């Protein structure tokens, strides 16, 4: 189950990039539709990036306070709703305001996702799941242009924002259902809890001694 969680959080990272790149891929259409200059459009992008920068730190604090399950549900739902509401923008101000609000949710995916990796994997085995999770950014960037272009050509730019935002809401429903049934027993030290998935894996590869189980210095051969 923990590898499913890695894959599912990687998918949230892909969706994160799809939502983020919509503003860039659709820039020519949005500028034409709202009669924006390059300078005007750059202000819209700056509003988004300002919110993004602010919420990196705040998102990390919230993930620690609420836990990764609740935090990811809040972050993905928040940015998905505001991405969908981008379809209702009627001008430069409303487009910038909606994108600013979307930017408040998107960076939280990363600290919450990393928290989940450390919850489910011991220190000795976190490299691969974190790498897979991080690769979602590159995959999302690679997919964004063709996916968004295909959606826009088959519908229009407003429907495109609705579709990519609704994918995040579907992601959240599955996340809440799966993670509720799989969370490790301990909230204080999940990776080290006796009943946690990470601890179970670690105990199989550790050398047993009387009184305690010492971590193995490396994978058993």
Query: How are helices and strands ordered from N to C?
Result: HHHHHHHHHEE
Shape: globular
Instruction: Note poorly predicted spans.
Output: 185-189, 191-221
Number of domains: 1
Percent helix, as a range, is over 70%
Oligomer classification: single chain
Q: Count the DSSP helices.
A: 9
* Strand portion: under 5%
CATH class: Mainly Alpha
Task: Describe the structure in your own words.
It contains nine helices and two strands. It is mostly helical. The chain has one domain: Up-down Bundle (Growth Hormone, Chain: A). Strand 1 and strand 2 form a beta hairpin. It is globular.
Structure at a glance:
The protein is mostly helical and 221 residues long. Helices cover 74% and strands 3% of the residues.
Set down the secondary structure blueprint:
Blueprint: H1 2-25, H2 27-34, H3 38-66, H4 68-85, H5 92-103, H6 109-120, H7 127-154, H8 157-180, H9 197-205, E1 207-209, E2 212-214
Antiparallel strand pairs: 1-2
Helix pairs in contact: 1-6, 1-7, 1-8, 3-4, 3-5, 3-6, 4-5, 4-6, 4-8, 7-8
What are its keywords?
Growth Hormone, Chain: A, mainly alpha, 2 strands, single chain, 221 residues, 74% helix
